[in-house]
Specification:
The chain is of the alpha/beta class and about 240 residues long. It is built from eight helices and ten strands. The protein has a single domain, classed as 3-Layer(aba) Sandwich (Dihydrofolate Reductase, subunit A), CATH 3.40.430.10. It is globular and about 50 Å long. Bound molecules: NADP nicotinamide-adenine-dinucleotide phosphate.
């Protein structure tokens, strides 16, 4: 088993390199009793290794895809990267900074937050044609608004729209509702599942609303302190 604690950035970048071609990778951390949150946030579940890995995964991806609920709960700001990460991305032929795409049915996102006002790369807001026109217009001033679907977001169309922008290495950080919908639409190629050594009691269960049973193949097991980092791919 590969120990992440002493691993260098280069080791990690090799272990988590994307395969060729379009790829949708999900990364989630979960407690031993199946919760994706502690007191409404993910912070209580993570570890230094998990944070290093999260930032590495963002830096390897073309775009990070996140549900609006997670944006609101976690108060995301711009994903900004260091000069070294920007240089490494450039050497892989990527834009200096990974993009951020937010999926929302309601468009209930505050366009005055730093996520939008301080971003050097305009975030992408993915919604549908029936979404509130006023909210859409407000978001269109600070983000690229992509319409995928007529009355609800069609995630397959959303992912195709990202690909059409050259954003083929997609990392999703959930949350649980978005992850469930992505699995239901059969769009997830890889699940990175971080098992946090905690029992937290009440919380948001990892899968909220997944309809389709599915089997995945375990392709790697890493550890870091008491955390397990499991890598699954399509069976
Ligand atoms: N453990 C982890 O790794 C992890 C990762 C991420 C988040 N979290 C936690 O999870 C909690 C949030 O859970 P959640 O399930 O509500 O997260 P979520 O999936 O990020 O948010 C749900 C919201 O995102 C939008 N959304 C998701 N899927 C959509 C779809 N298919 N089409 C259109 N819009 C879609 C909708 O936004 P609108 O309401 O705007 O329409 C929906 O209400 C937070 O407490 C967060 O801290 C944990």
């Amino acid at each position: 088993m590969f120990d992440l604690t002493p691993a260098t950035e280069t080791d990690l970048a090799t272990a988590y390199a994307h395969p060729q071609g379009p790829w949708l990778r999900a990364n989630m951390v979960i407690s031993l009793d199946g919760s994706a949150t502690v007191e409404g946030r993910v912070g209580g579940l993570t570890s230094p290794e998990d944070q290093v890995l999260l930032h590495l995964l963002r830096s390897l991806a073309d775009v990070t895809l996140v549900g609006a609920g997670t944006i609101r709960a976690e108060g995301y700001g711009p994903l900004g990267v260091s000069a070294e990460v920007a240089a490494a991305r450039a050497s892989r032929g990527q834009t200096p900074e990974p993009g951020l795409a937010i999926v929302t049915h309601s468009c209930d996102l505050d366009p005055t937050t730093s996520l939008f006002t301080e971003a050097t790369t305009r975030p992408i807001v993915i919604t549908h044609e029936g979404a509130d026109p006023g909210r859409r217009a407000a978001l269109a001033r600070v983000a690229d608004v992509v319409l995928a679907g007529e009355r609800r977001v069609d995630l397959a169309e959303a992912v195709r729209a990202l690909h059409a922008r050259g954003l083929t290495r997609v990392l999703t950080e959930g949350g649980p509702s978005l992850l469930a919908d992505l699995f239901d639409a059969d769009l997830v190629d890889e699940l990175l599942f971080v098992l946090s050594p905690q029992l937290v009691g009440a919380g948001v269960p990892l899968t909220t609303g997944a309809q389709t049973p599915r089997r995945l193949s375990l392709t790697a097991v890493h550890r870091g302190d008491d955390f397990l980092f499991l890598q699954y791919r399509r069976a």
